[in-house]
Amino acid sequence: MKALIDLHTHTIVSGHAYSTVQENIQAAKEVGLKYLGLSEHGPNMPASPHLYYFQNIHCIPKEVDGLKVLRGVEANIIDYDGNIDIDEDLAKHMNYMIVSLHPPCIGYGTKEQNTTAVINAMNHKKVKVIGHLDDSRYPVDYEMIVKTAKDKDILFEVNNSSLKPESFREGAIENVGYLLKYCKQYNVRVIFGSDAHISYDVGKFNNCEKAIQDHDFPRELVVNYNEEEIKNIFDLD
Ligand SMILES: [Zn+2]
Ligand SMILES: [Zn+2]
To answer: What is the pairing mode between strands 35-41 and 5-6?
Structure first.
């Protein structure tokens, strides 16, 4: 089976990534993706784009040489009530939002605080994916979060960068194991994301593939392989 989408990619706009939109598009075409999501960091991440970037995102074509380009953002969860740094007006410009916990934007809370933050963050319109919920520095109740995501029809990201040996996210391999276990048990879908910060990583899911094999995770629950589901989830024609 072939992955058709990578919805988690960054460009130089994010301030700590190294390729341009055009380079990411080129890379996506070369690895045979049909859908590429641009998901720069929300404004609370140091050196991330100004709000004007997101307001002006309509400049980016919806399709380039047959590759569909989705307008997204990786919003930051900024407190334990689950508030994020993209408001509803700005979200209207996007096809989707990923919401994530990042150390510069929120302190490492308790398990209860982090769990509440993530669950409440699912309530914002346009949130489709919980990003890299795999970092032991942010302990969470995986079972409770997976059950809530099922009710709200939200996907969990299996993040290829977290699973690299040099990843700074602690305990990611073990935590992805918990996530996959509960997603399998409750029939909740996941999506692979490269979290590319350079074009060479766009569409690379080798570590995600290994994780689902290791955990005998059903491929029917991996959205990347299913074009109809991709179109439904991201409201594409
Ligand atoms: Zn980043
Ligand atoms: Zn992130």
So the answer is: parallel
